[in-house]
């Protein structure tokens, strides 16, 4: 995949921490950043899968350290970030780890609702709060929060998932201004459908489905340009924005037609 063009204003992080790097978009991001001179701190729960991603990144010349932990564990997550920052001050932290009804192997029910809200909101909070403190000490840095196109508005097709992503989007947008004076950049990532184990469970036709390598390329480029919101594909981003701006009496009939996760 060709590399984004660099200019004097381009962010070119050397020390990068990625949660959820053992699979899907996180894995693709790790591989996209892997090269000589980069230090990658890769996190996940599945040791075998994470080790394979780390090996592939090392083959591309990156220095790699892996951390096996659950982002729902506040102390362990903060400890991993602190350890990584001591090894090489963190330039970029990507709070990517997340789940959906599909990746949990169930439609949204009471249990999966708890798990989705827990991981997708508190897992991100557990990652971002200690990062802010470390970057305040470093006096600079960049934090990327993984939301979704589903974060533009509550969706009847996936209530807990869309609520979690709305929360992450709103928090990230607010943090960007909140941390601006401190030289800490904050970006929100809102992908449409990306082919990963998370979407493998979807039985409906996913419009504009994209592979994870292409998604990683777009995200890396958006982060290098410090875009506030990296939403793609553009046509879906426009549609999501439009539907979220419509009055409820118009948006409800449209959204109620969306296919639900049927697993
Ligand atoms: N795929 C899409 O269409 C799409 C679209 C928009 C947004 N997103 C978001 O992108 C992110 C990545 O999703 P993906 O599609 O790449 O899914 P994926 O292939 O299922 O990957 C999810 C990653 O998150 C990690 N993870 C999940 N729960 C965790 C926990 N409690 N603690 C630590 N790590 C945890 C997983 O690690 P282990 O497997 O090692 O546990 C895995 O590495 C998610 O936040 C998702 O909501 C995805």
Give a description of the structure.
- There is one protein chain.
- The protein has about 260 residues and is an alpha/beta fold.
- It has a single domain (about 15-255), classed as NAD(P)-binding Rossmann-like Domain (Rossmann fold).
- Helix content is about 45%, strand content about 15%.
- It has nine helices and nine strands.
- The protein has a seven-stranded parallel beta sheet with strand order 3-2-1-4-5-6-9, sandwiched between helices. Strands 7-8 form a two-stranded parallel ribbon.
- Strand 4 (about 90-95), helix 4 and strand 5 (about 140-145) form a beta-alpha-beta unit.
- Helix 4 runs parallel beside helix 5 (about 160-180).
- The longest helix has 29 residues, at about 110-140.
- It is globular, with a radius of gyration of 18 Å.
- The chain starts with 14 loop residues before the first strand and ends in an 8-residue tail after the last helix.
- The model has no long low-confidence stretch (mean pLDDT about 95).
- The chain binds NADP nicotinamide-adenine-dinucleotide phosphate (NAP).
- NADP nicotinamide-adenine-dinucleotide phosphate binds near residues 20, 21, 24 and 46.
- NADP nicotinamide-adenine-dinucleotide phosphate binds near residues 100 and 193.
Strand coverage percent: 15-25%
Number of helices: 9
Structural class: alpha/beta
Instruction: Find the count of extended strands (DSSP E, 2+ residues).
Output: 9
Kindly state the percentage of residues in helix: 40-55%
Output mean pLDDT.
Answer: 94
For CATH, the homologous superfamily is named as NAD(P)-binding Rossmann-like Domain
Detail the poorly predicted runs.
none
Q: How far apart are the first and last residues' alpha carbons, in Å?
A: 34 Å
Largest sheet: 7 strands, parallel
> What is the CATH class name?
Alpha Beta
The third-level CATH topology is: Rossmann fold
Shape call: globular
Q: Which architecture name does CATH use?
A: 3-Layer(aba) Sandwich
Strand/helix succession: EHEHEHEHEHEEHEHEHH
Radius of gyration, in Å, reads 18 Å
Unique ligands: NADP nicotinamide-adenine-dinucleotide phosphate
Strand arrangement in the largest pleated sheet: 3-2-1-4-5-6-9
In total, the number of domains comes to 1
């Amino acid at each position: 995949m060709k590399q984004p063009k660099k200019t004097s204003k381009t962010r070119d992080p050397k020390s990068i921490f990625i949660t959820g790097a053992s699979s899907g978009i996180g894995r693709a991001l790790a591989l996209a950043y892997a090269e000589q001179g980069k230090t990658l701190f890769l996190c996940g729960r599945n040791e075998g899968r994470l080790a394979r991603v780390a090996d592939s990144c090392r083959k591309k010349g990156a220095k790699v350290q892996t951390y096996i932990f659950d982002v729902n564990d506040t102390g362990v997550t903060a400890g991993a970030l602190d350890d990584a920052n001591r090894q090489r001050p963190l330039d970029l932290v990507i709070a990517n780890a997340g789940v959906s009804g599909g990746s949990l192997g169930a439609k949204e029910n009471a249990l999966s609702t708890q798990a989705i809200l827990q991981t997708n909101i508190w897992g991100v909070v557990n990652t971002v709060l200690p990062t802010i403190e470390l970057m305040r000490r470093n006096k600079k840095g960049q934090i990327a929060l993984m939301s979704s196109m589903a974060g533009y508005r509550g969706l009847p097709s996936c209530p807990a998932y869309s609520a979690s992503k709305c929360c992450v989007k709103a928090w990230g947008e607010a943090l960007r201004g909140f941390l601006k004076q401190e030289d800490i950049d904050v970006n929100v990532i809102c992908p449409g459908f990306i082919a990963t184990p998370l979407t493998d469970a979807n039985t409906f036709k996913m419009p504009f489905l994209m592979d994870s390598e292409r998604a990683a390329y777009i995200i890396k480029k958006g982060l290098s340009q410090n875009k506030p919101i990296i939403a793609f594909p553009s046509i879906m981003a426009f549609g999501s924005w439009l539907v979220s701006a419509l009055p409820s009496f118009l948006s409800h009939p449209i959204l109620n037609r969306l296919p639900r996760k049927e697993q």
